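Duplicate of earlier report; Energy-coupling factor transporter transmembrane protein EcfT input re-posted below.
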Amino acid sequence: MEKSYTEKIQIHKDNKLAALYPSTKLLVVCLYIVCTFIIGTVHVTSVGLSLLLIPWFIAVPVLCIASGAFRKCIKALKAVAVVAAIIIVVQTFLVPGGELLMRFGFITIYEKGLKTAVSLSFMIMNIAGIFVWLFQTTENREIARAMEASGMNYKAAYVFTSTLQMIEILSKNSKTIMNAQKARGVETEGNIFVRAKAFFPSLVPLILGAVISSEERVLTLEARGFSIQGEKTHLFNLEKSGCERKTAAAAIVITVLVLAGRIALWII
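Output:
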């Protein structure tokens, strides 16, 4: 039997972790960030490095694998790792301060620079990584529906989700324009100057396209009665996986244990 349109637009996920309600995922993200800041205050080695942030980051790929979304997350996690590596290099070799730890020719490593590099880079990796898991396992319409269900104004929910969608739309349009430039014989690959020379002329059609699409989007919304006051009808219904309470309880317990461990280290 052929499914109706309403049945086709519903989201059904076999993985219980990926199918968690967005508010539960947000709770996990917030508690993970809290634990990250707590663990970041624990300093080991004689220099006082926040090395415990490194094994703590393992929780992110574990969550991605358990959610069945590791392939979707790996590209974003690689980008986060590149940013963290740049921060480590800049902070370690270019920021002076504190005791001189190592000198190799013109390269010097100071205590302050090394401590800041480890702490800042892995703090960013942990926080950005957990957000990668959140957005790669949750569709924009799930977030919008959960926002409206929580009592948020539907206009604010739409602005938030449309902002997320706009990033993806602009990225696709940019690739389309660059491919069109390449088809016309414009050189788009090479060093940074060649790429910049090809990229900046593509900004005009990209911006104009965004303006035109926003106007079309407004007309579409008005045709659907977006600005009319009153109760809204939703064709898309957000389902729960049934593991929300267990997941929230586990996240809270882990946070309490991390906090208790940190307090114990302070006392000791």
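Residues 154-183 form the longest helix (30 residues).

Merging into the original ticket.
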